Amino acid sequence: RKPNGTESRKSGEGDTNGRKPDGTESRKPGDGAGSTKPGDSGTNGRKPNGTEGRNAGSGDSTKPGGTDSAQVVPTAIGDGRIVTEGGRIDTFTSADLTTACTVLQKYDEGGSPAGAVIVTVVCEEEACTVGVADTAAVANAFLTSGQIQLVQDGGTIEIRIHMTDISGNVPQQDKDVIEDAIEKAAGHYPYKFPGLKSGMYVDISVMIRVGEGEWNAITQSEEPVEVVIGIPETLQAEGREYYIIRAHEGKYTFMDDLDNQPDTITILTDRFSSYAIAFVDTGDTRCWLCYICPTFLGSCCFVWLAVFILELLALAVVNLLWKKKGKKKRKKKRKKKRKKNKTKNKTSYSCKADA
């Protein structure tokens, strides 16, 4: 989406982060020093649902990005990258906090503010939440080396990530792409996506502003960023697996849920446009091996069939060895008997000769 007078920025061709149904992610969350996995305590133990604004540092409270409060995190710049003290810092909205903000504040040697990156996450829909697990990684993914140098020199840059429920107003091209993806996945990979359905469409857009300048739309980042989407309560159900399908420039990408939380979906993405929250109702009886056949005592019927065949083969081998051993024993017994009879006949012949 391009507001009037702005241009989007891209960083090369191809989708290095996207997943097809049978593919793998090229990068996992937690790569790099000081990182943690989604849901770990490294994200300050906060989840999208039920979170509150948090003031970090010395209790500073500001109002950047239209928020009532923001967490201010001391930040340094090294090797051309923004680094926060104490590891990863998350930024999440919640049901009670539709706008969350983190100020990555750089200080000079005297302790005075000297440059900042303000990352704001917005989700005005009460039914869903959104957040980023590593705010500094977001800044590094969207800012160019020149912009990071600007922050180093004392400038301020704002990054705004906005998620909107567009279920009732999906762009037709994106809707067609996602429906085509669901149809192909269910048809070509029924063992993994039986009954795949779309539950909700959202738009994730990113805007950036340098100083007091104009807001510019960003449709692609330099690096993938970890986005955490809260699953609406209306889509939550027992035994349900969730997937994200992204529609970007006429192409779809399947993305697996990277966290273990039942009420969130974590993805790595470097393109920002329309997304669908899709799901598969697995129930408690779906086979973990083929995703199709019923189970018996919690295991796939094919597993039980394989065990049964192995048992038959084992019995056949034992029976064969037993027969072979018995045959050898009987042969040895006959040979011994023939030898005994031969000795007996020879003795009898000697007795007749003497007579």
Q: How would you describe what is shown here?
A:
The protein is of the alpha+beta class and 355 residues long. The protein has 4 helices and 16 strands. Helices cover 25% and strands 31% of the residues. The strands form 3 sheets. Strands 1, 2, 4, 5, 7, 8, 9, 11, 12 and 14 form a 10-stranded mixed β-sheet that branches. The longest helix has 54 residues, at 301-354. The chain is elongated, with a radius of gyration of 34 Å. The model is unreliable at 1-63 (pLDDT under 50).
Keywords:
ten-stranded mixed sheet; 25% helix; alpha+beta; 16 strands; single chain
Q: What composes the largest sheet?
A: 10 strands, mixed
What is the count of DSSP helices, taking H or I runs of 4+ residues? 4
Q: Helicity, in percent?
A: 10-25%
- Give the percentage of residues in beta strands: 25-35%
Compute the number of strand runs.
16
Tell the overall outline: elongated
Mean pLDDT across every amino acid position: 77
Low-confidence stretches: 1-63
Radius of gyration: 34 Å
> Which structural class matches the secondary elements?
alpha+beta
Distance between the termini: 126 Å
